[in-house]
Amino acid sequence: MNAQPHDLKAQLLQTDHEFNQLAAKHHELEDRLHELTAKHYLSEPEQLEEVTLKKRKLQLKDRMEDILRRHRQQA
After folding, report:
1. How many Cα atoms within 13 Å fall on the side-chain side of residue 69?
2. Model-level pTM?
3. Each residue's pLDDT tens digit, 53-72
4. What does the alpha-carbon distance between residue 33 and residue 24 come to, in Å, rounded to a whole number?
5. 27 near 75, Cβ under 8 Å?
């Protein structure tokens, strides 16, 4: 049977350099988004940053899912 999704992610975090870098960047963007959402008011540049961060985060997640999918198919 195939490895569980969590197990595969953990394995890739340790063995796949690209996946590890994508996950680290995704985490950095998540932290920055939390900083922005904690504010009561966002300036216009901060609003733009928030939208840009969300889009970039989604791109990273999509790429990570592509890598996961590729590894599942190879298994």
Report:
1. 6
2. 0.85
3. 999 999 999 999 999 999 99
4. 14
5. no
